[in-house]
Amino acid sequence: MIQGFKEFIMRGNVIDLAVAVVIGAAFTAVVTAIVTGIFNPLIAAIFNSEDLAQALVLPLPGGGGLAFGLVLAAIINFLLIAAVVYFVFVMPINKMKEAQERRRNGGVLPVADAAAASAAASELDLLVEIRDLLAASTAKDPRHTL
């Protein structure tokens, strides 16, 4: 049981996930500070309010109110986090995967169909094997040159 737990913890994806959670938490603090310190005051100034959370409040009968400014601040925060995650993490990783796939396919453009991609990969493997066999036969019998 202990060995199984140790193997589970030492898997690369568990460690990667732990790192992602820690980085995500730290990154959320940075984005929240940017939203709170820059965007909220700018938007609040448009609505003549001290804070975005206090802007766009629709009073309700009997007290209290609906804080649309607070919701707007959360939406801005979400959009900023999503944009940074996409442009800093997702897009570069996708570009790297595309480049690896191009190298793997010998410079051929990526194939959209998975079956066609595996057929192209097996075709490449077959060509490499033929090349190696020809090279081996040429080395054994110098009369057969290419």
Automatic annotation (TrEMBL):
Keywords attached to this entry: Cell membrane, Ion channel, Ion transport, Membrane, Transmembrane, Transmembrane helix, Transport
Highest rank taxon of the organism: Bacteria
Places the protein is found: Cell membrane
Pfam families the record matches: MscL (PF01741)
Keyword presence, Cell membrane: yes
Membrane-protein topology: Multi-pass membrane protein
UniProt keyword annotation of Transmembrane helix present: yes
TM region positions: 14-47, 67-93
InterPro entries reported in the protein's UniProt record: Mechanosensitive_channel_CS, MS_channel, MSC/AndL, MscL_channel
Family listed: Belongs to the MscL family.
Role, per record: Channel that opens in response to stretch forces in the membrane lipid bilayer. May participate in the regulation of osmotic pressure changes within the cell.
Protein name: Large-conductance mechanosensitive channel
